[in-house]
Amino acid sequence: MGNQIIILISFVISAILMLACWFVSKNVQKKRRNRIEIDNQKADIISIIDEAVSSGSNIKSKPRLSQDIPQLGLPKWGKWFMGFAWLPFIVTIITIIITISISHNNNSTSTSTTSTLPTTTTTTATAPISSTSTATTSATTSTTQARATSSMPTATITSYTLITSVNSAGGGTVSPSGGSYSRGISVTLTATQANGWTFGGWSGSTDIANTTANPTTITMNNNETVTANFTQNIYTLTTSVNPAGEGTVNPSGGSYPSGTSVILTAKAATGWTFSSWSGSPDIANTTANPTTITMNGNETVTATFIPGVEIQSVALPSNAKTSSGIILTTYPTTFRLVNNESVDVTVTWQVHFFANGNPFSNYSNTVTVPQNGYIDVTNRYYYPIAGTWNVTYTISINNSQVDTWSGTMIILQGY
User: Fold this and answer.
1) Which of 105-109, 130-134, 148-152, 315-319 has the lowest mean pLDDT?
2) Residues 45 and 23 grouped into a single domain
3) Same domain flag for 165 and 177
4) 173 domain-assigned
5) Of 69, 104, 139, which one is at a domain's C-terminal end?
6) How far apart, in whole angstroms, are the C-alpha atoms of residue 45 and residue 200?
């Protein structure tokens, strides 16, 4: 566009100069014609004077034609224009030739430079591309672009496939999960571990920059397969009893994979009863026995027991008989409850009677056993059925069984 403007300006200037020369030349020619006419008239006057002198006419003096008759010659500036009228045309021609030569050289240089563009950064793109692509280059002008396109060579870019995996289902994820990348591209790999798992390293390709770092990079020199290795965390369970020695917990401890559900069972010592669990937020129910705990970390659990009561002795009736009439005879049964602790303990007792293996009757009541003392509980029962009776005594604290006793007795047919 710049060269075209220069040529246009040259043409305009040349046209103006040539018009000026044409105007000057026209005026000069007109003056020349006038001069010729004057010269002709001058010649005629001189001829007349000469004839008069030769004939003896009374002419006192010869006219001073050089002074009286105007000298109408061409002015200097007109001569200069006439002498150089051809110059603007010659300058214009030279300007056009030089401009075309410069334009041709610039186009040749642009075409030569553009033809080398396909060797630039097209192979270093980090974004995934298709398997094969042709490099294209944009030129700065439409003319240069047309020439570059016709002479520009094509470049084939090789791409490879990345495949990632994890060695344990649920252990974690890998980003990116895969894709296609140009040869030589460096891809950043990031492993994210799930709760209860730990990243253990990369494997599967020799092009991984660092197999233990996270994140790491891999250079796409081939089709690449990468595995992220995760290991499941192992957590420790620790149990204890409060007060010490007044009960046990099963299991007493151990090592478990993360997420494992472990069943905990508390057993009270004689005279004690289970109260609650404490120590971890992962216990399912702190008052139930048994309960469960989920191993989401290293867990510490304490089973708490409170003072209890035990059945020391039971006295059942002997030689008891049923009545032969409508009046039933009662016989006493007695059991002693002993408190081994230094606090009063309130317990619920129950007695179950079975005649010949069939349920017959149940009785229950609540009593308080003094600290470090005992209490005898006596009840009188009717036995209308003769036969072998099975008797079971149970005492509980807060609905949790503390101690039991079982025995048999024989009831004879009445009188």
Assistant:
1) 130-134
2) yes
3) yes
4) yes
5) 104
6) 131
CB 232 within 8 A of CB 170: no
Does the CA dihedral 14-15-20-21 come out positive or negative?
Answer: positive
Say how far residue 170 (Cα) sits from the centre of its chain: 19
CB atoms within 10 A of CB 217: 14
Question: Residue 340 in 3-state DSSP?
Answer: coil
Say which residue, 220 or 354, is predicted with more confidence: 220
pLDDT band of 124, cuts 50, 70, 90: very low
Cα separations in angstroms, 270 against 231, 249, 277, 384:
45, 15, 19, 36
168 and 190 together in one domain: yes
* Chosen domain end from 104, 121, 149: 104
Claim to verify: residue 293 and residue 316 sit in the same structural domain: no
**What total number of domains does the chain contain?**
4
Q: Shortest CA distance to 391 belongs to which of 297, 309, 318?
A: 318
The pLDDT of residue 25 is above 80: no
Instruction: Answer whether residue 129 is part of any domain.
Output: no
Q: State what percent of residues in the chain have pLDDT above 70.
A: 65
Q: What is the pLDDT of residues 198-211, one digit of tens each?
A: 999 999 999 999 99
Which range marks the domain in which residue 60 is found?
2-104
Cβ burial 339-365 (10 Å sphere, 16+ → b, else e):
bbbeeebebbbebbbbbeeeeeeeeee
pLDDT in the model for residue 174: 96
Cβ contacts of 122 within 8 Å, gap of 6 or more? 133, 135, 155, 157
- Are 18 and 65 in the same domain? yes
Q: Looking at the DSSP assignment, which residues form a beta bridge with residue 293?
A: 262, 283
Decide if 132 is inside a domain. no
Q: Is the pLDDT of residue 183 over 90?
A: yes
